[in-house]
Amino acid sequence: MASGVAMTAPQFDDAEQQRSSSNLGIWIFLATEVLFFGVLFAAYSITRVRFPDAFAAASRATSVTLAGINTAVLLTSSLTMALGVHAARQGARRALVGWLWLTVALGAAFLVIKAFEYRLDYVEHLIPTINFDHSRPQADQVELFFYMYFCITGVHALHVLIGIGCIAVIAAMAARGAFSPSYFTPVDVTGLYWHLVDIIWLFVFPMLYLVSRS
Amino acid sequence: MTDHIGESPRTYVMVWLTLLVLLLVTVASAYVPLGWANTPLNLVITVTQATLVMFFSMHLRSAHPLLKVIAAIGFFGIAILIVLSLLDVLTR
Q: Which residues of A touch B85 (CB under 8 A)?
Protein backbone atom coordinates (compact mmCIF):
# COMPACT_ATOMS: atom_id res chain seq x y z
CA MET A 1 0.00 0.00 0.00
CA ALA A 2 1.54 3.27 -1.10
CA SER A 3 1.82 5.63 1.83
CA GLY A 4 -0.65 8.49 1.81
CA VAL A 5 -1.89 7.90 -1.72
CA ALA A 6 -5.61 7.69 -2.38
CA MET A 7 -6.21 4.41 -4.14
CA THR A 8 -9.27 4.43 -6.33
CA ALA A 9 -10.82 1.12 -7.32
CA PRO A 10 -11.60 0.83 -11.06
CA GLN A 11 -15.38 1.04 -10.61
CA PHE A 12 -15.18 4.59 -9.24
CA ASP A 13 -14.69 7.88 -11.12
CA ASP A 14 -12.58 9.39 -8.37
CA ALA A 15 -11.57 9.11 -4.70
CA GLU A 16 -14.48 11.28 -3.60
CA GLN A 17 -17.04 8.98 -5.21
CA GLN A 18 -15.32 5.98 -3.62
CA ARG A 19 -15.42 7.64 -0.20
CA SER A 20 -19.11 8.49 -0.60
CA SER A 21 -19.90 4.88 -1.51
CA SER A 22 -18.13 3.63 1.62
CA ASN A 23 -20.10 6.10 3.70
CA LEU A 24 -23.39 5.03 2.14
CA GLY A 25 -22.46 1.37 2.70
CA ILE A 26 -21.65 1.77 6.38
CA TRP A 27 -24.84 3.76 7.01
CA ILE A 28 -26.93 0.99 5.43
CA PHE A 29 -25.10 -1.51 7.64
CA LEU A 30 -25.75 0.69 10.69
CA ALA A 31 -29.46 0.80 9.81
CA THR A 32 -29.53 -3.02 9.85
CA GLU A 33 -27.75 -2.95 13.24
CA VAL A 34 -30.41 -0.60 14.56
CA LEU A 35 -33.09 -3.02 13.33
CA PHE A 36 -31.23 -5.95 14.93
CA PHE A 37 -31.22 -4.30 18.34
CA GLY A 38 -34.71 -2.94 17.68
CA VAL A 39 -36.17 -6.44 17.74
CA LEU A 40 -34.72 -6.96 21.22
CA PHE A 41 -36.06 -3.54 22.31
CA ALA A 42 -39.52 -4.44 20.95
CA ALA A 43 -39.53 -7.72 22.89
CA TYR A 44 -38.49 -5.76 25.98
CA SER A 45 -41.25 -3.15 25.50
CA ILE A 46 -44.00 -5.74 25.13
CA THR A 47 -42.85 -7.73 28.15
CA ARG A 48 -42.47 -4.61 30.27
CA VAL A 49 -46.00 -3.45 29.43
CA ARG A 50 -47.32 -6.87 30.46
CA PHE A 51 -45.33 -7.13 33.72
CA PRO A 52 -44.63 -3.54 34.89
CA ASP A 53 -44.20 -4.38 38.60
CA ALA A 54 -41.82 -7.29 38.03
CA PHE A 55 -39.74 -5.17 35.64
CA ALA A 56 -39.57 -2.35 38.19
CA ALA A 57 -38.37 -4.76 40.90
CA ALA A 58 -35.90 -6.47 38.54
CA SER A 59 -34.45 -3.17 37.34
CA ARG A 60 -33.85 -2.08 40.93
CA ALA A 61 -31.69 -5.21 41.39
CA THR A 62 -29.27 -4.08 38.66
CA SER A 63 -26.19 -1.99 39.44
CA VAL A 64 -27.00 1.55 38.32
CA THR A 65 -23.66 2.91 39.61
CA LEU A 66 -21.48 0.60 37.51
CA ALA A 67 -23.75 1.05 34.48
CA GLY A 68 -23.72 4.85 34.92
CA ILE A 69 -19.91 4.89 35.06
CA ASN A 70 -19.87 2.64 32.00
CA THR A 71 -22.12 5.08 30.11
CA ALA A 72 -19.66 7.89 30.87
CA VAL A 73 -16.75 5.68 29.76
CA LEU A 74 -18.45 4.89 26.46
CA LEU A 75 -19.40 8.54 25.85
CA THR A 76 -15.77 9.49 26.46
CA SER A 77 -14.55 6.79 24.06
CA SER A 78 -16.88 8.30 21.46
CA LEU A 79 -15.14 11.66 21.99
CA THR A 80 -11.65 10.16 21.59
CA MET A 81 -12.82 8.38 18.42
CA ALA A 82 -14.22 11.62 16.99
CA LEU A 83 -10.92 13.37 17.79
CA GLY A 84 -9.09 10.48 16.12
CA VAL A 85 -11.10 10.93 12.90
CA HIS A 86 -10.35 14.66 13.11
CA ALA A 87 -6.63 13.92 13.46
CA ALA A 88 -6.83 11.60 10.43
CA ARG A 89 -8.45 14.39 8.40
CA GLN A 90 -5.62 16.73 9.47
CA GLY A 91 -2.99 14.11 8.60
CA ALA A 92 -1.71 14.12 12.19
CA ARG A 93 -0.45 10.54 12.34
CA ARG A 94 0.87 10.47 15.91
CA ALA A 95 -2.30 12.09 17.28
CA LEU A 96 -4.44 9.68 15.26
CA VAL A 97 -2.62 6.62 16.63
CA GLY A 98 -2.81 8.02 20.18
CA TRP A 99 -6.56 8.75 20.03
CA LEU A 100 -7.28 5.31 18.54
CA TRP A 101 -5.37 3.43 21.26
CA LEU A 102 -7.07 5.58 23.91
CA THR A 103 -10.43 4.57 22.39
CA VAL A 104 -9.36 0.91 22.55
CA ALA A 105 -8.40 1.36 26.22
CA LEU A 106 -11.76 2.97 27.07
CA GLY A 107 -13.62 0.22 25.22
CA ALA A 108 -11.66 -2.38 27.19
CA ALA A 109 -12.45 -0.51 30.43
CA PHE A 110 -16.14 -0.72 29.52
CA LEU A 111 -15.89 -4.51 29.18
CA VAL A 112 -13.96 -4.88 32.45
CA ILE A 113 -16.60 -2.86 34.34
CA LYS A 114 -19.27 -4.94 32.61
CA ALA A 115 -17.54 -8.11 33.84
CA PHE A 116 -17.56 -6.78 37.43
CA GLU A 117 -21.26 -6.07 37.00
CA TYR A 118 -21.95 -9.62 35.80
CA ARG A 119 -19.99 -10.94 38.79
CA LEU A 120 -22.24 -8.86 41.07
CA ASP A 121 -25.30 -10.34 39.31
CA TYR A 122 -23.87 -13.82 39.93
CA VAL A 123 -23.34 -13.12 43.62
CA GLU A 124 -26.93 -11.86 43.92
CA HIS A 125 -28.31 -14.98 42.15
CA LEU A 126 -29.71 -13.08 39.18
CA ILE A 127 -28.43 -15.21 36.30
CA PRO A 128 -31.21 -17.24 34.65
CA THR A 129 -30.55 -20.98 34.17
CA ILE A 130 -27.26 -20.70 36.08
CA ASN A 131 -28.11 -19.58 39.59
CA PHE A 132 -31.39 -17.65 39.50
CA ASP A 133 -33.07 -17.41 42.90
CA HIS A 134 -36.69 -18.52 42.38
CA SER A 135 -37.75 -17.72 45.93
CA ARG A 136 -38.06 -13.99 45.19
CA PRO A 137 -41.52 -12.46 44.51
CA GLN A 138 -42.73 -12.71 40.87
CA ALA A 139 -39.68 -14.87 40.20
CA ASP A 140 -40.69 -16.00 36.69
CA GLN A 141 -41.32 -12.48 35.40
CA VAL A 142 -38.15 -11.13 37.05
CA GLU A 143 -36.26 -13.99 35.43
CA LEU A 144 -37.72 -12.93 32.06
CA PHE A 145 -36.28 -9.43 32.62
CA PHE A 146 -32.86 -10.92 33.32
CA TYR A 147 -33.00 -13.12 30.22
CA MET A 148 -33.42 -9.89 28.24
CA TYR A 149 -30.85 -8.06 30.36
CA PHE A 150 -28.16 -10.64 29.58
CA CYS A 151 -29.22 -11.00 25.95
CA ILE A 152 -29.17 -7.23 25.27
CA THR A 153 -26.05 -6.36 27.29
CA GLY A 154 -24.29 -9.51 26.03
CA VAL A 155 -24.91 -8.75 22.36
CA HIS A 156 -23.92 -5.13 22.98
CA ALA A 157 -20.70 -6.22 24.72
CA LEU A 158 -19.95 -8.41 21.67
CA HIS A 159 -20.33 -5.30 19.49
CA VAL A 160 -17.93 -3.42 21.77
CA LEU A 161 -15.46 -6.31 21.49
CA ILE A 162 -15.69 -6.30 17.67
CA GLY A 163 -15.29 -2.50 17.72
CA ILE A 164 -12.15 -2.77 19.86
CA GLY A 165 -10.70 -5.29 17.37
CA CYS A 166 -11.47 -3.05 14.37
CA ILE A 167 -10.01 0.05 16.05
CA ALA A 168 -6.84 -1.85 17.05
CA VAL A 169 -6.33 -2.94 13.42
CA ILE A 170 -6.95 0.64 12.21
CA ALA A 171 -4.48 1.94 14.83
CA ALA A 172 -1.80 -0.49 13.62
CA MET A 173 -2.47 0.57 10.00
CA ALA A 174 -2.30 4.24 11.01
CA ALA A 175 1.03 3.68 12.76
CA ARG A 176 2.40 2.24 9.48
CA GLY A 177 1.25 5.40 7.68
CA ALA A 178 -1.63 3.83 5.73
CA PHE A 179 -3.79 6.97 5.94
CA SER A 180 -3.54 10.54 4.72
CA PRO A 181 -5.89 13.55 4.57
CA SER A 182 -6.97 12.34 1.10
CA TYR A 183 -7.56 8.73 2.21
CA PHE A 184 -8.77 7.80 5.69
CA THR A 185 -12.06 6.03 4.90
CA PRO A 186 -11.33 3.02 7.19
CA VAL A 187 -10.86 5.40 10.15
CA ASP A 188 -14.06 7.26 9.26
CA VAL A 189 -16.13 4.09 8.80
CA THR A 190 -14.84 2.43 12.00
CA GLY A 191 -15.64 5.64 13.86
CA LEU A 192 -19.24 5.59 12.61
CA TYR A 193 -19.62 1.99 13.82
CA TRP A 194 -18.18 2.90 17.22
CA HIS A 195 -20.54 5.87 17.63
CA LEU A 196 -23.52 3.62 16.81
CA VAL A 197 -22.47 1.11 19.50
CA ASP A 198 -22.40 4.11 21.85
CA ILE A 199 -25.90 5.22 20.75
CA ILE A 200 -27.32 1.72 21.32
CA TRP A 201 -25.92 1.75 24.86
CA LEU A 202 -27.56 5.16 25.45
CA PHE A 203 -30.93 3.40 24.89
CA VAL A 204 -30.01 0.25 26.82
CA PHE A 205 -29.00 2.19 29.94
CA PRO A 206 -32.38 3.77 30.89
CA MET A 207 -34.28 0.70 29.64
CA LEU A 208 -32.55 -1.77 31.93
CA TYR A 209 -31.19 0.30 34.80
CA LEU A 210 -33.52 3.25 35.39
CA VAL A 211 -36.95 1.59 35.56
CA SER A 212 -38.74 2.81 38.67
CA ARG A 213 -35.78 3.92 40.77
CA SER A 214 -37.79 6.54 42.69
CA MET B 1 -22.53 12.97 -2.92
CA THR B 2 -21.56 13.59 0.67
CA ASP B 3 -19.31 16.46 1.46
CA HIS B 4 -18.86 16.42 5.20
CA ILE B 5 -16.10 18.58 6.52
CA GLY B 6 -16.47 17.38 10.09
CA GLU B 7 -16.64 19.49 13.21
CA SER B 8 -13.91 21.25 15.17
CA PRO B 9 -12.35 19.53 18.23
CA ARG B 10 -14.00 22.23 20.35
CA THR B 11 -17.43 21.14 19.10
CA TYR B 12 -16.68 17.49 19.90
CA VAL B 13 -15.68 18.43 23.45
CA MET B 14 -18.80 20.59 23.89
CA VAL B 15 -21.01 17.72 22.63
CA TRP B 16 -19.24 15.33 25.02
CA LEU B 17 -19.82 17.66 28.01
CA THR B 18 -23.49 18.08 27.01
CA LEU B 19 -23.87 14.29 26.79
CA LEU B 20 -22.37 13.85 30.28
CA VAL B 21 -24.66 16.52 31.74
CA LEU B 22 -27.67 14.82 30.11
CA LEU B 23 -26.50 11.49 31.60
CA LEU B 24 -26.47 13.05 35.08
CA VAL B 25 -29.90 14.59 34.47
CA THR B 26 -31.44 11.32 33.32
CA VAL B 27 -29.98 9.36 36.28
CA ALA B 28 -31.05 12.07 38.77
CA SER B 29 -34.55 12.31 37.27
CA ALA B 30 -35.00 8.55 37.69
CA TYR B 31 -34.79 9.02 41.47
CA VAL B 32 -37.48 11.74 41.51
CA PRO B 33 -40.96 10.23 41.86
CA LEU B 34 -42.74 11.51 38.75
CA GLY B 35 -45.05 8.52 38.32
CA TRP B 36 -45.74 7.67 34.69
CA ALA B 37 -43.61 10.62 33.52
CA ASN B 38 -40.25 9.06 34.56
CA THR B 39 -39.95 6.73 31.59
CA PRO B 40 -40.94 9.24 28.85
CA LEU B 41 -38.51 11.76 30.39
CA ASN B 42 -35.65 9.21 30.27
CA LEU B 43 -36.60 8.38 26.70
CA VAL B 44 -36.67 12.04 25.59
CA ILE B 45 -33.21 12.62 27.12
CA THR B 46 -31.84 9.47 25.44
CA VAL B 47 -33.23 10.50 22.04
CA THR B 48 -31.64 13.95 22.54
CA GLN B 49 -28.29 12.30 23.34
CA ALA B 50 -28.53 9.96 20.34
CA THR B 51 -29.41 12.89 18.05
CA LEU B 52 -26.38 14.86 19.29
CA VAL B 53 -24.07 11.90 18.60
CA MET B 54 -25.53 11.35 15.13
CA PHE B 55 -25.55 15.00 14.07
CA PHE B 56 -22.12 15.98 15.38
CA SER B 57 -19.90 12.93 16.07
CA MET B 58 -21.28 11.02 13.07
CA HIS B 59 -21.31 14.16 10.89
CA LEU B 60 -24.94 13.73 9.85
CA ARG B 61 -25.40 17.50 10.18
CA SER B 62 -23.35 18.15 7.05
CA ALA B 63 -24.14 14.86 5.31
CA HIS B 64 -25.98 14.32 2.04
CA PRO B 65 -29.80 14.11 2.48
CA LEU B 66 -29.69 10.49 1.27
CA LEU B 67 -27.54 9.50 4.26
CA LYS B 68 -29.96 11.30 6.60
CA VAL B 69 -32.86 9.30 5.13
CA ILE B 70 -30.98 6.00 5.52
CA ALA B 71 -30.01 6.90 9.09
CA ALA B 72 -33.69 7.59 9.85
CA ILE B 73 -35.00 4.40 8.18
CA GLY B 74 -33.67 2.04 10.88
CA PHE B 75 -35.20 4.07 13.71
CA PHE B 76 -38.44 4.53 11.76
CA GLY B 77 -38.67 0.76 11.22
CA ILE B 78 -38.26 0.13 14.93
CA ALA B 79 -40.84 2.75 15.83
CA ILE B 80 -43.37 0.93 13.62
CA LEU B 81 -42.41 -2.44 15.11
CA ILE B 82 -42.74 -1.30 18.72
CA VAL B 83 -45.84 0.90 18.33
CA LEU B 84 -47.86 -1.64 16.33
CA SER B 85 -46.81 -4.52 18.61
CA LEU B 86 -47.83 -2.50 21.68
CA LEU B 87 -51.14 -1.53 20.04
CA ASP B 88 -51.92 -5.23 19.83
CA VAL B 89 -50.86 -6.02 23.40
CA LEU B 90 -52.53 -2.96 24.96
CA THR B 91 -55.89 -3.38 23.23
CA ARG B 92 -56.52 -7.06 23.88
A: 42, 45-46
